[in-house]
Design brief:
Shape: globular
Number of helices: 18
Radius of gyration: 21 Å
Largest sheet: none
Distance between the termini: 28 Å
């Protein structure tokens, strides 16, 4: 049953927000389905732990999770937060916990993991025809690539690009570990990559090398593997020029210059960086006024705007004025403080180093871990680009995959016997 709930969770992330907010199909409450499923899983976990004693929970993840949850509750106690805002904060900052624990408490078989990967591959491939429709028909009159967000919603072009780069990292991992044949690899690569060229996101230029460099650095093997790595390098190099060509085509129609001019134009890059980095600086400067705010923040949910006025935090207006919304790092500093930021960053850091060890394995386990090398880094970097906790596609998929890495690492010797 839990497998079907996961399938429903993934489908709902990709479809419900898009259908409701873009086309008005369905009701608002349906878009909460991922969180309802998370609650169902949370209720199921204690029953599982009560009937089985063979759960190998890695101590470091357990300790980190305990520290993180304790930090959230201390932040509630130290700040003036209403009960409704506490509920909103818990919804935002703890919804990933049941999903993270799921693969550890209810281990996936190799077949289950493969099915989930296949579902994600299919959903990522669907983005290609959807983005084509958006680019050349639905938003044909738009000079901007922002509306081309696929099924992840309007103005979600950057989110879509990061997600597709994450999928590409697993495609590369599966190919390098000989879990995908060359024809299948090429088809998947082309179909998943092309939408990132049509929505004109600068973040693709920055993050694309991560997908290539990390697997090449950490995978080890014989001459045959080196040939595969060389082929991937050539493919990515060619793809980069395709990306640059298409990006410049649309940007020159809109602004009269391409990415090279954007980077080299005096003051242009500085203005763009200010829109990104000034809110982060304001968040830290404001936090430094009070040690309580610096360490614990103003309380989870206390700067967030809820569905209703009751669920909205005390500092919503102040946070909006200083640009607290939109980027996870900025919002974390405001709501859970520097200590909370560090605790949150430790999750992808732990996953990365466990994936480094596991990616040396052969077969599907090694391929999955190879993909997680890039995913953990992309997730960490995405915290400086978008609000990963608002984007369910990031928070749920990362912590589901992270839970699987934690399970594989904790049961490494058992799985090898």
């Amino acid at each position: 049953m839990l497998n079907y709930l996961l399938y429903l969770l993934i489908l709902s992330i990709f479809l419900l927000d898009w259908l409701f907010f873009r086309y008005g199909i369905g009701i608002r409450q349906l878009t909460w389905l991922p969180e309802f499923i998370s609650i169902i899983i949370a209720v199921s976990i204690p029953f599982r732990t009560a009937v089985t004693k063979q759960i190998h929970f890695p101590i470091k993840y357990g300790f980190l999770l305990l520290l993180y949850l304790s930090h959230i509750f201390i932040g509630f106690l130290l700040n003036d937060i209403s009960g409704w805002t506490i509920l909103s904060g818990l919804r935002i900052y703890t919804k990933f916990v049941p999903i993270f624990l799921l693969p550890i408490i209810f281990p996936f078989s190799k077949q289950d993991a493969r099915k989930l990967i296949i579902i994600l591959f299919v959903l990522s491939m669907i983005q290609f025809p959807v983005v084509l429709w958006q680019r050349f028909f639905e938003f044909a009159g738009s000079l901007s690539g922002d509306p081309m967000g696929g099924t992840l919603g309007a103005h979600a072009s950057g989110v879509l690009s990061i997600f597709l780069l994450i999928v590409l990292s697993f495609i590369v991992g599966l190919y390098l570990k000989e879990e995908l044949s060359l024809p299948v690899f090429l088809i998947l690569f082309i179909v998943v990559f092309l939408p990132t060229t049509l929505n004109e996101t600068k973040v693709t230029f920055v993050l694309m090398p991560v997908v290539l460099i990390l697997p090449a650095l950490f995978v080890k093997g014989k001459l045959k593997l080196m040939v595969r790595i060389l082929f991937v390098v050539i493919l990515f190099s060619a793809s980069f020029f395709v990306l640059k060509g298409i990006y410049n085509f649309y940007q020159e129609k809109r602004w009269g210059y391409g990415i090279e001019t954007f980077v080299s134009m005096p003051g242009r890059m500085a203005r763009y960086n200010r829109t990104r980095f000034d809110p982060m600086r304001y968040a830290i400067d404001n936090a430094k006024k009070d040690v309580r705010f610096l360490v614990f923040g103003r309380g989870a949910g206390n700067v967030s705007e809820g569905f209703t006025r009751k669920l909205s935090g005390k500092y919503v207006r102040e946070g909006a004025y200083y640009g607290a919304k939109g980027v996870s790092f900025t919002k974390f500093v405001w709501e859970i403080g520097i200590a909370g930021v560090l605790l949150m960053f430790l999750f992808p850091v732990f996953v990365f180093f466990d994936a480094v060890r596991l990616c040396q394995k052969d077969g599907f386990m090694g391929a999955f871990a190879l993909g997680m090398l890039s995913f953990s880094v992309l997730f960490l970097l995405a915290m400086f680009y978008t609000d990963v906790f608002v984007q369910n596609i990031f928070v749920y998929l990362f912590f589901l995959a992270a839970g699987q890495i934690a399970y594989l690492r904790g049961n490494e010797q058992l799985l090898e016997t």
